[in-house]
Amino acid sequence: MKINKLVFVMSILVYTNLLQAQDTISKVLTLEDAMNIAMENSPDIQKSRLNMERNKENLNAQLAALKSRFAFDFTPIQYSVQEVYDDYFSEWYTEENKTSNGSLIISQPIKQTDGTITLRNTLSYQDNYSEANNSTYTGFNNNFYIEFNQPLFTYNRTKMNLRRNQLSLETATLSYAIQMLNLERQVTQAFYFIYQKQKSVQIAKEEYDNQKISKSIIESKVEAGLAAKEELMQAELNLATSESNYDNSIVDLENEKDQFKLLVGISIYEDVAVQVNIEYKPVIIDLNKAIENGISQRMELRQQQINIDNAEMDIIQSASTNEFRADMNLSLGLMGNNEVFVDVYDKATKSPQVGITFKIPIFDWGERKARIRAAEVALESQKIDKKTEEDNIVLNLRKIFRNLQNLVTQIKIAEKNETNAQLTYEINLERYRNGDLTSMDLDRFQNQLSEKKANFSNALINYKLELLNMKIQSLWDFENNQSFVPKEFQENIIED
Asked: How many alpha carbons fall within 13 Å on the CB side of residue 420?
């Protein structure tokens, strides 16, 4: 008996401490609050956001590289002394040279043809002494020319590099958007789990209060001699059990909160509670609409298509291995020199140049053919992955649709069961007051009521989570009848 009293006192102390913990709640979160906090604090989201920003800057750099480039090369002083052998006189002589020069270079890549136009002007000052004829030369030299370089019989590398950067940004944006959706699913599930635990605490508290009423009734009967003491002992046991269940439900709630705070990024020392409207509102789901929108909008399919596009470009690059190609160079310039700077072009000399270089492979032991075949196999694999992904999307949407239909039925049944269990408990509580029912029988009806309440709450939560799953899988919000494509994806989408 002393042990029972000790257990009872310890239970009261634990219960009091837990109640105090509940009274010190410092933050009540809505689902939107939790999502905003998670978006800011999630390490995966932060890394994905940085990766998207990095790819965006790479694309900006590639676009900037397509514009005109300006450069200035300047050599303020260059001095050299060397011995030069004259074959005609069979003599060695000393040559001393002092120069200063500068070049202004303007080059413009041509995106459409992968060629380059370059405008170059080189101005130099020269002070030369030659021992051969004991002569000196001091003057200015200027060389101005425009040059055009064009690769032939090969693919456009400029366009391909630009396209790869565009696809890299789109891939990073897709990954970021997909992670956001996954995080929303995780946070929503954890959020509703906390609500579920809070509901369990509430149900356990109601059961505990009912057991106290039951115990009070049997105490009055025992004191009046209308019931045996064994009934009171059973009522006390039922009360202790319900109190323990209540304490356990609070502990489960606190454990679930800790996991939630870890996921969202809230300090584990800060207490939280969730606030949510879990009322049942049936939503009409159009399966054909869900499948059509999922196939056209799902970002995983777009990622697979990007992989196919990259694989096709890999084939083009593989085909350039040991390729036959040519490079054409055209140049038109004007050269001049004079001891006086303003007269540098008095006797100007035109300097046109034209040339074409062919690169002709002869035998490569099958390297080019093997690389092309490897790239083609990779492309076929990517196409299979896309088809598999598309089939999985359709199957998942069908499964979710069936689950939602089943959950609607379960909600109706659970709601009716809770109503019936509540009515049954009230009827039997009155029978218990009248002495027509034992405390063990009443406890059975109390447990039944608690179970039906929990089942109804769980059915509502499962329906909410499955609705979210449908929204994420189809990218269509059937509750608000609108598209559910993340804003970041819409902003950074790259058109072909």
From this structure: 10
pLDDT of 425 higher than 70:
yes
Query: Which pLDDT score is estimated for 370?
Result: 94
Establish how many alpha carbons lie within 13 A of residue 33's alpha carbon, considering only the half-sphere containing its beta carbon: 13
Just give the CATH number of 2-57+161-311+376-492: 1.20.1600.10
Say yes or no to pLDDT of 271 above 70. Answer: yes
Three-class SS string for 32-89? HHHHHHHHHHCHHHHHHHHHHHHHHHHHHHHHHCCCCEEEEEEEEEEEEEEEEEECCC
List all residues 6 or more positions away from 453 whose beta carbon is below 8 Å from its beta carbon: 199, 203, 206, 418, 421
Rounded to two decimals, what is the model's pTM? Answer: 0.74
Non-local (6+) Cβ contacts of 420 within 8 A are: 452
pLDDT of residue 252: 93
Rg, C-alpha atoms of the chain: 41
Rounded Cα distance, 481 and 466, in Å: 16
Q: What is the Cα–Cα distance from 200 to 457, expressed in whole angstroms? A: 9
Domain parsing of the chain, residue ranges: 2-57+161-311+376-492, 70-110+115-154+326-360
Q: Is a pLDDT exceeding 70 seen at residue 100?
A: yes
Say which amino acid occupies 6: L
Alpha-carbon distance 144 to 120, whole Å? Answer: 6
Helical axes 157-223 vs 43-64, angle rounded to 10°: 160
Could you tell me the pLDDT band of residue 6, with boundaries at 50, 70 and 90? very low
Over range 388-415, report the average pLDDT. 94
The answer to whether residues 344 and 338 touch, using CB atoms and an 8 Å cutoff, is: yes
